Recover the amino acids of this structure.
């Protein structure tokens, strides 16, 4: 992941020691190993982030409150975070109908965006319009991802 010399620079940027950065590549310590001093590995920043998300999921039963973390990191990478589409019905052939219905609605979303942008309030969206359009777009992207997952599983 890091190339030679990056450890020192990353340590400088994170205000920690290069030894800590290097320790992230070793196995994390368990409580028993930590107290016995047998392992030198430390939990990395990714491990810590995973624990924050796990704690939110445990508290809420769902990861929704942790989604801003996904949005933030995706934006840093010039990407898009879209929560997985949860289909609670029978995942057989009904999944394809559900995905098809969502994608059919995507056409309506595009038409709605055009009307908002060009007719209702030219050149701008209200906060409410943006929220609705973003939710519809996320659902369409998630449906396409679910379709890909479904096809790969077959």
């Amino acid at each position: 992941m890091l190339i030679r010399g990056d450890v020192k620079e990353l340590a400088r940027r994170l205000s920690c020691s290069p030894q800590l950065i290097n320790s992230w590549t070793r196995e994390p310590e368990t409580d028993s190993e930590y107290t016995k001093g047998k392992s030198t590995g430390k939990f990395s920043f990714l491990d810590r982030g995973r624990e924050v998300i796990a704690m939110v999921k445990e508290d809420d039963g769902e990861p929704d409150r942790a989604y801003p973390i996904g949005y933030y990191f995706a934006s840093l990478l010039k990407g898009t975070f879209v929560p997985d589409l949860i289909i609670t019905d029978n995942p057989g052939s009904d999944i394809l109908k559900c995905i098809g219905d969502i994608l059919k609605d995507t056409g309506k979303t595009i038409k709605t965006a055009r009307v908002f942008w060009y007719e209702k309030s030219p050149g701008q969206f209200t906060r409410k319009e943006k929220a609705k359009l973003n939710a519809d777009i996320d659902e369409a992207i998630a449906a396409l991802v679910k379709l890909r997952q479904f096809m790969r599983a077959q």
In short: Residues 94-120 form the longest helix (27 residues). The chain has a mean pLDDT of 80. DSSP finds seven helices and no strands in the chain.
